[in-house]
Amino acid sequence: DAGVTQSPTHLIKTRGQQVTLRCSPISGHKSVSWYQQVLGQGPQFIFQYYEKEERGRGNFPDRFSARQFPNYSSELNVNALLLGDSALYLCASTLDYRGAAGYTFGSGTRLTVV
Amino acid sequence: KQEVTQIPAALSVPEGENLVLNCSFTDSAIYNLQWFRQDPGKGLTSLLLIQSSQREQTSGRLNASLDKSSGRSTLYIAASQPGDSATYLCALSPTSGTYKYIFGTGTRLKVLA
After folding, report:
1. I need a surface site. Which of A95, B23, B82, B104 has the fewest CB within 10 A?
2. In a 3-state reduction of DSSP, which class is residue A83?
3. Are A72 and A32 in contact, with CB atoms under 8 Å apart?
4. In whole angstroms, what is the distance from residue B32 CA to residue B18 CA?
5. Which of A44, A48, A104 sits opposite B98 (nearest CB)?
6. How confident is the prediction for chain A on average, in pLDDT?
7. Per-residue b/e over B50-62, b at no fewer than 16 CB within 10 Å?
8. Interchain pair B42, A107: CB under 8 A
9. Are B101 and B2 in contact (CB under 8 A)?
10. Chain A: which residues have CB within 8 Å of chain B?
11. How many whole angstroms separate alpha carbon A60 and alpha carbon A38?
């Protein structure tokens, strides 16, 4: 079985641009969460989606948005990019919204804003 | 507010040594705790999951323990190898509120051959 897949793996954008990151969860997993990891820090929670509904949002500005599709894949959108948005963006999938069986993370998308 | 701390931030040990990585948290109301490994520039690889009703989990050379009353989890690595060199992160989810993981800042381990 394929794990959590994220695309693209690397991305370079200019300040002010918009970016869309994609994530496909493990087959059968209905919850997807997004995390931002800046260099030298632990990942920070951005969003959780379960059954296509937002179940949680971290302390990020409204420039960050996400959605989940009927096949449970998800997109993270970031508008008006700032240099500080440069980070590794990680997607995690869980079987249920509680994460009782733990989280499985993808390999991440490295976003560089110049 | 739950805070997760990992000390030390970095550790270098000779090959073959047994070692313990520490994870401390401020609120004992946790749902589960998971240890991850992260290689430079890569995603997170799950090592061990401890649910709140459990005290420890073992996989191969790895053993993780959880003591909610003292706010501590430890990851024990036996007979360390150069391939164990990576950053180790602990993450936990609270019992209430948003079902998210709160991560520590990690311990960067280097095992010297």
Report:
1. B82
2. helix
3. yes
4. 25
5. A48
6. 95
7. beeeeeebeeeeb
8. yes
9. no
10. 6, 33, 35, 40-45, 48, 55-58, 88, 90, 92, 97-108, 110
11. 14
Specify the DSSP class assigned to residue B79.
S
Query: What digits encode the pLDDT tens for the residues A76-109?
Result: 999 999 999 999 999 999 998 888 889 999 999 9
* Cβ distance of A107 and B49 shorter than 8 Å: no
d(CA B113, CA B95): 42
- Using a CB-CB distance cutoff of 8 angstroms, which residues of chain B are in contact with residue A92? 101
Interface test with A, best of B5, B35, B44, B102 (most A CBs within 10 A): B44
Q: Do B91 and A107 touch (CB under 8 A)?
A: no
Amino acid at A108: G
Q: Which residue type sits at A3?
A: G
CA triplet B87, A92, B42: central angle to 5 degrees? 35
**A48–B100: do the CB atoms touch at under 8 Å?**
yes
B98 and A CB contact within 8 Å: yes
The answer to whether residue A38 scores a pLDDT higher than 90 is yes
